[in-house]
Amino acid sequence: GPPPGGPRPMGMGMPPGGGPNWAPVPALPPSARGGPGLGLFAIVALIVALVAGAVGAGVGVIATDGDDGGSVSLGGSNDSDTPIQARPPDSVAGVAQRVLPSVVMIRAQASQGEVGGTGFIVNGGYVITNNHVVAGAGGGQIQIVFNDKKTLPATVKGSDPSSDVAVLKPEGQHSLPPLPLGDSSKIAVGDPVIAIGSPLGLQGSVTTGIVSSLNRAVPTQGEGGGDASYLNAIQTDAAINPGNSGGPLVDGKGRVIGINTAIATLGGQSLGGETQSGSIGLGFAIPINQGKRIAEEIIRTGSVRQAKLGVFPDPRYQDGGARIMTQQVNGQDPVVKGGPADKAGLKPGDVITKVDGRPIEDATDLIAQIRSRAPGDRVTVTYERAGKEANVQLTLGAD
């Protein structure tokens, strides 16, 4: 590998120093007792019990203070037998009613216990999730728990660590409908979104928010120091927590626009003496257009080819754009001979400032932009050389 702080070839990259801690949404942590995050379940149960106890005590005090020895009636509904009415189809409740049956909880048996996450059903009965949800299984047993609590074993059809996408195939029959897939290229900042998953093992949890930003370059490290992935992500303030990994981010019509994957955390910072973790309103999802392409390739071939530009960007360059290294990296030229960039005339020291007209902030941003595309895609690269700007069209290769 490269020296500490040194570059990696395009498609690998190095995350910049400082800033927030980017992390994949952890799969439900392994439990020493074999259950899915039993310690977390205990914490949640304790908090719920304390709140319920406090509310009950408050009601009791109020009733006693207002009671002069007579009976007290707090009233109640007389229509308890009335069935729950269908909600408007475009309301959050209406969308949730349609989407929830096709969202599953995933349990993977790892060496340290059971880990878990979320997935959703697509055409052919396949289930899309994150690679980091199932990577820890190491060939161990994987189970899918449907919304009606039916459980089926599943096998990994294929996965791609670099994009953090995996496809599972349930073993057995189910008749649940696939979720409709939207078009992530047509969403806008401010659009309402809904995240559905199993945070902390709480299956069928629904949270809401908006699209906070688009094309957010997010480098993440796989579980246990595994392969890094680089997301050209949708940012959302919908609450995403451990166990949400691999679940759908849907639009106001219930169409999947993203795969919930990562969160930003405060790391070692604390507030009130407690370390902050979980959702702080900064969640990230793989755009479904990219996720769909990768999943289809996995289903078709069992593997994935990533787009390749053929340069080594300098992760230490922070003056705007991504500068191509000027020295060899591990014996390789900074512009790979015969690669797409070489054929297009790019040279060491060139600063790539735009891809298809979208500004590039740094090396990580460039990596995320290229990774979001497919081999064979034609792109326009804007670059600066000796203070002069130029454009070049090239065809991305495959790694």
Automatic annotation (TrEMBL):
GO biological process, one term: proteolysis
TM ranges: 38-63
Keyword Hydrolase attached: yes
Keywords: Hydrolase, Membrane, Protease, Transmembrane, Transmembrane helix
InterPro entries per record: Chloro_Bact_Ser_Proteases, PDZ, PDZ_sf, Peptidase_S1_PA, Peptidase_S1_PA_chymotrypsin, Peptidase_S1C
Pfam families reported in the protein's UniProt record: PDZ_2 (PF13180), Trypsin_2 (PF13365)
Taxonomic superkingdom: Bacteria
Domain PDZ: 335-387
The keyword Hydrolase is annotated on this UniProt entry: yes
Alphabetized GO MF terms: serine-type endopeptidase activity
PANTHER family: PEPTIDASE S12, PROTEASE DO-LIKE 8, CHLOROPLASTIC
Family indicated by similarity: Belongs to the peptidase S1C family.
Protein name as catalogued: PDZ domain-containing protein
Source organism: Actinomadura geliboluensis
